[in-house]
Records
---
Amino acid sequence: MFFKPHQLYRIINPVTQTDGKGNPIKDSGYDMKEFIDGCFLHDIGIREKSGYLGKGIEVTYFINLERNRNLAYGMEVLVMDGDDILGRGKIVDIKHTSGHINNYTTIYI
């Protein structure tokens, strides 16, 4: 168990409004979010960032949360603290840690 001051949400792609002919109206949709779990958002360190940049992946944050197998690569997530948005992005890496004491998931966005 660890400190979880932030909330992790999954961004659900909005259904845009359509005109009379059934064509989507540009920029008429809005983001919907679904709560996943409490989490802890961290800025990525230089060492980890350079490792991902070597693979051509730009990573800004990593997030610790209780073990969760419902997350997927490319899923867009949002981290909030109350009404403040702390981070938003697509999941580029997922690591599951388990052991005698630790049993959590780390995601990178």
---
Amino acid sequence: MRRNRLAIVAIAALPLLIAPRALDAQTLDKQLQKALDAGDMDAALKLAAIDESPADVRFYFLDMVRECAVEMTCKVALAPLSAKAPRALDGAELPAPQTGWVVVTQKSKDGTGSGKTEMPYGTIGGKPMVLGARLTAAKVASLRASSNDSLMDEALAQGIYDSKLGERRTDWKKVATRLGAGGGEFGAFLVRRAEALKKAVAANDPDAAAAAGGRWAAMVFGAEGFEGPVPLKARQAKLRAQSMRFLRDVKVLGGYQLGDDAMLTVEAVDGAGWTARGPILVSRNEDGFDVAGDLTIAYPK
């Protein structure tokens, strides 16, 4: 269960800090432990500087809180910076210098698995905080400069799986039908889905999300899990965490269709409030339409 996260950070007290601040630093682990035990996302967010972080960082942090309350038994401890070398952040940076690690040791309540989450921490405004990585100015500029056409070309070059051929096809631009603004029925589905998920999040309604989001959402937010009924509170926690990854205000600029698949270029807003754009793969099956892949990029507005 080791997670591959865009860094999250926390801070250990240094010997040279004045006593009150050192005492504050030593309570970070206790405060986070309390929040994780209760599954209190609001309390945990007060301990984390992730307001400038991408949606995925925010999702992983909130989902850790959810897991520790529902699925895992978690123990929080602080470790010095020397305990582990800082991660190399490609195109990202921390909002404050790292001075230590918050280590969350996890064991599944059913005894089937275990893991460890290591989050860097530092001091912001005199308060020890878990630090979420943010994009560097150079990375933001690079993302802004990426054209929608180049993002589509990159996605098509990777190939799209053709179930009839049993292999990836990289010749879409030659054989697929070009779609205009709106993306036809594939695009109309994508817009409806995004709007329905937005409403489900606003209403804190996992049943609505399960109905709107296709097979994946039905599995994640459904009232029945592999081991029986899933409590509403647990499903609502999943919805809050996953909403960071949802796109809203979707505009379909065009794309390509080949048979029952369409690669669409979209512009939208993600759960962090950032601009999200690029290609999304929508497929049609016996149950209707569903999202099959997402290669969008995101950056602050």
---
Amino acid sequence: MSGASQAEALELSRRMLEAARGGAWEEVAALDERRRELLAGAALPPATWEALLALHEEVLALAERARQEALEGLEGLRRGQAARKAYGGCP
């Protein structure tokens, strides 16, 4: 893989991280697809793989946090619906 392709893969990973920080998960997925295509069968130096892995781990951590927040929001919605139902509110 050329140096330009390595730089592009790192840039895609950085953009994925920024998109994840902004909650733009569809953009993260699209960037990840492009990055996977670029890296398919790539022979990269260990330092490049380590940098890509570090960025990927940050994206995964943000995804897990977003998933947990969504789950908590869903639980809150369920509690609210149960309370409304218990008190004879609207269905």
